[in-house]
Amino acid sequence: MDAVTLIGFIVAGYAAFVTIAAVLGVVLKAPRPKWLDQVAWMLEILAIVLAIGALAAWSGGRKPESLSTFLGYLGALVCLMPLALQTMRGDRSTWSSGVIAAAALATGVVAVRVMMVR
Fold it and tell me: Which among 43, 53, 63, 101 is placed 20 to 30 Å from 5, CA to CA?
């Protein structure tokens, strides 16, 4: 197992953790806590590390089957969470936690897809 695959598993696992934490907030009908924003940004940092690692593997000679799909997944990987957090920056309602849950779940899925297509 190479380092990029390991980082991908870490991103997917952490995305699952963030998703569960955010869904728990929705189920409990609690306002979105500030720590949920912090763990979401940590997921974004891990996603950026995965994207940099995947790009490094690509520049090192590992060619993906479809370059456009690979680059599209990398773009989605690094853009999902910041877009979700910025769209509800001032909203601390229960459903804003649902937005984080959806973005975290999508980030985890895209991380797995990056590992599959690279």
Answer: 101
